[in-house]
Amino acid sequence: MHTLQFQQAAAPACVLESHAIVEVPLSEIRALRDAPSPAGAPALPPRFLRHCDEHTVVGVRAVLEAIAAMPQPVPAFTRYGVIGAPLQAGRITAAQTLSQVAKAGGIAVSPHVVPQCSLHALASAVSVGLGMHGPNLGTSGGPEALSEGLFAAVSLVRSAGCDGLWAVFTEWDEEPVLDDAGAPVNDPLCRAVAVAVRPHTSADVGAVTFALMPADSAVRRDAAAKPTRSPLAAFAWAIGMCAAGGAIASWVHECPWGADIRIAAPAAAAREARPQSTEHVRREAA
Amino acid sequence: MHVPHTRERVSVITGLGVVSPLGNSFAEVAGNLLAGRSGVCEVAAASGAREGRQFAAPVTSIPQPAGPGCADFASLGRLEQLCLAPAAAACADAAVAAAVPPERIGIVLGIGAEQLKAWELDFLAGGRCVFEPHRSETLVHRIARRLGIAGPAVAVAAACASSGYAMALGRTWLDAGHVDACLVGGCDILSPTAIAAFYNLRALSRRSDDPHKASRPFDRDRDGFVMAEGGAFFVLERRDAANRRGARVYGELAGVGMSSDAHHMVTPCSDPQEAARAISLALADAGLEPGDVDYINAHAAGTPVGDAAEAGAIRLAFGQAADTIPVSSTKSMSGHLVSGAAAFEAVACLAAMHREAVPPTVNLDSIDPACALDHVPHAARPHRVRVAASNSFGFGGANLCLVIRQAA
């Protein structure tokens, strides 16, 4: 087992400012597209989401819910960056487009396909819709979206020249089943998890923290059982538990390249210098 | 929050691989850029094309890379070939596998629409992947495995700035000590749907009667960009480590600046403020003043709004120095490599340094007054380039500037 050697292993990289988890059936995304903002959240420009991919609609909603959940006054996010990590975004539109092109030719290709269904689109929509001027970028697009997005966020949060980052992860609970015209024939849930993080400072006490760590081989040896749900669902559960007053002490996401990303609740964060293996709650246990 | 680099944390380029419309090696690309040769040509019209004559800047041949992970290269899809060939070439050029343990090598791939392209190419070949609920491993992990890279592997997308963001993230990992070497870059592929989408967006030039003249950044008669394919990869290492092992150093990735316009998902922002901020951040990151820059490789793709906005950003960021810093857009010759553009244009900056000449903007017959800068029209200009700045901008308001410095 290869192990990364982090210069400051276990030192928190960033703290959680807010988070939200949203799950919406495909059949209800149309309504959300027209009215995305919950009470207490900033308004988006009119019809802002009308051409967006389903992942973007649900991801933006998660960001808005996370903002609405923050204590007033909500900080300005002008100098925040955005990382979007959707898993297979754009497949419904791509299927419909290719189906139409086969019949009608290039005229059937919407000019919105590339800007709204590419990997950057989720992050760009959050940046544009909410006026965030830090860098905005998409990551992954595939089965390792959580690992790639978290690793990028934790490693960029101190170096991207911004005050903090939003990291937004999306996936279908089960992938849409499409007919020959690209129309969905099932009604899967689209899940989004949005977290706002900023660099950790010594003054941060009582905060949920994120840290990059070398892979914990002890945890890996015990982790033979197959995860019972997706990594993003487990992450959603864990971030909620850590944020809810330390219902769990910490949780570790294992990246496939020998690195762990540890989320620690405030109680565990206070003991950060001597993390105990018993504090780890594995995905399998989630 | 911004931490300037210390001397010990300098990131240098020790390996380079390129596959492009202007050649598949550093020497070939540099020669073609400085000779003002265009890679734009008429291409076979794809099924469903809007116009009878189509033009683009294609890659005409993809070299077979050496190595055990590339033995089945001929059987791979074209997108994977376009990525793997320059990635493998960069690793071989740096001889990084012999010097750095696999788990200490990372990879960041800049690619904007990998799955859209993969679904489309499969569909055109008679497949049904796009209709099926299947989640397949992405390109960055396949390339990492083929090249024996066991460190962090992440794909990033920032539209036309994707490969530049990949370079920025890889440099961050080096700075933080997460890796000892990082393969960074990006690539893209011509696809019928993407061409149709950009055509319908009115972003592409429609000068189909004269394809060689179609890509004309900063020109008064520009009418859009010309799509291209290919890309470039680099191996980044810390300078102290590179020097210890006697590695060849092409140049230093001295500064990175990133920002977002937060203006529109598609339309470039006419206000140059945020693009200029990305440039200023990159200069500050490199510890340089505007007057220290010897060459600006502009993003300028040839779109009416985008080129004028970039000229404004350059003037805002560089101030009076903009009057005397040579500026060119190599997209006039290479076309727009989209996800691969930023990395390819970093190759152009290195070419300017190594050949002591600024590549031209061809087809710049009549400079748009809204784009007034120290342009280099038609032919290369002999000029010592120690520091180059390269801009990249993308859909969704992504702004990036890379500052590349001659190796010390």
Rounded to the nearest angstrom, the distance between the terminal CA atoms of chain B is 28 Å
Tell me, briefly, the overall form of chain A. globular
The total beta strand count of chain B reads 15
What is the spatial order of strands in the main beta sheet of chain A?
3-2-4-5-1-6-8-7
Task: Give the CATH architecture of the largest domain in chain B.
Answer: 3-Layer(aba) Sandwich
* CATH topology heading of the largest domain in chain A: Peroxisomal Thiolase, Chain A, domain 1
Tell me about the biggest sheet of chain A?
8 strands, mixed
Give the integer mean of the pLDDT values of chain B: 95
How far apart are the first and last residues' alpha carbons of chain A, in Å? Answer: 24 Å
Largest interface: A-B, 84 and 82 residues
Q: Tell me the domain tally of chain B.
A: 2
Beta-strand share of residues of chain B:
15-25%
What low-confidence regions of chain B span 5 or more consecutive residues with pLDDT below 50? 1-7
The number of helical elements of chain B comes to 11
Number of helices of chain A: 9
Helical percent range of chain A? 25-40%
Rg calc of chain A: 19 Å
Low-confidence stretches of chain A: 1-9, 217-226, 272-286
As a percent range, the share of helical residues of chain B equals 25-40%
Oligomer: heterodimer
CATH class of the largest domain in chain A: Alpha Beta
